[in-house]
Amino acid sequence: MRNSLTERRAERGWSQAELAERLGVSRQTIISIEKGRFDPSLPLAFRLAEEFGVAIEDLFDPER
Amino acid sequence: MFARWTLTIAFALVAAAAIGAVASVFNPEAPLVTGVVFAAATLGPAGALGWFLFVSPKTVTPDPNAEDNVENTWLQKAAAGAFTDLLIVLAIALTVVSVTGRSPDAEILLLGAVVLAMGDVAIRYVVTARRER
Predict the structure, then answer these.
(1) Residue A34 has pLDDT above 80, yes or no
(2) pTM as predicted
(3) Distance between CA atoms of residues A47 and A50, nearest Å
(4) Rounded to an integer, what distance in angstroms lies between the CA atom of residue B25 and that of residue B39?
(5) Does residue B6 belong to the interface with chain A, where contact is any CB pair within 8 Å?
(6) If you write DSSP's letter for every residue of B41-109 in order, what string do you get?
(7) CA proximity to B34, closest of B20, B47, B55
(8) Radius of gyration, alpha carbons of chain B
(9) CA nearest to B64 within chain A
(10) Which of A22, A15, A16, A13 lies closest to A49 in space, CA to CA?
(11) Which of A6, A10, B55, B76 has its CA 20 to 30 A from that of B91?
């Protein structure tokens, strides 16, 4: 699944470790999501969207 | 906390002694040696179990987001794959034993199964982590 996590994180000047800490997950989890190798759970996707102040569909694109 | 550690140590000693006693009953040729060896070998794991039961609930905070981590997914994949591998190996072993009528000691078979399962999960986890990193 494509996502705009890297761009949005860069806009805010957050490091991967910082975002991971904010969400209470490992840095590797953020790396894997950004690379599109790991689809987050629904609760984590909601927390991510909330952290960036956007809707889930603005953050993730199901690549139809 | 002192009471909890005391409970842990008491639990470990009692559990190890109980295992030693049971083992000695099943080996009447050398009950004392058997009991002591089994009790000594069980003391560590029994202590760990005691710590888990009595100390860890007060000292370890569960991670509420543990399941959200990618590492958890890797472990689940590794465990699922290892289970399939173990099932196949056990089925083949059972076939061989059935056909030949010869079977190694149950202890060897069970130890092999445990080592295989643990090693398989470890290897699969590392491979999955490298692939999906």
Answers:
(1) yes
(2) 0.81
(3) 5
(4) 13
(5) no
(6) HHHHHHHHHHIIIIIHHHH----TTGGGSHHHHHHHHHHHHHHHHHHHHHHHHHHHHHHH-----HHHH
(7) B20
(8) 20
(9) A24
(10) A22
(11) B76
Q: In the predicted model, what is the mean pLDDT of residues B57-76?
A: 92
Structure tokens at B28: 């009447």
Pick the residue of A21, A27, A41 with the most B CBs within 10 A to test the interface with B by mutation: A41
pLDDT in tens, B75-130: 999 999 999 999 999 999 999 999 998 888 889 989 999 999 999 999 999 999 99
Span B64-69, average pLDDT:
91
Number of alpha helices (DSSP H) and beta strands (DSSP E) in chain A: 5, 2
Query: What count of other Cβ atoms lies within 10 Å of the Cβ of residue B80?
Result: 12
Residue type, B32: L
CA distance B98 to chain A (A): 44
| DSSP H or E run through A13 | none
Nearest to B132 among A23, A24, A38 (CB): A38
Q: What is the pLDDT of residues B7-56, one digit of tens each?
A: 999 999 999 999 999 999 999 899 999 999 999 999 999 999 999 999 99
Q: Which run of H or of E encompasses B132?
A: helix B106-132
Dist. CA B109–CA B93, nearest whole Å: 9
Judge whether B70 and A28 are in contact, CB under 8 Å. yes
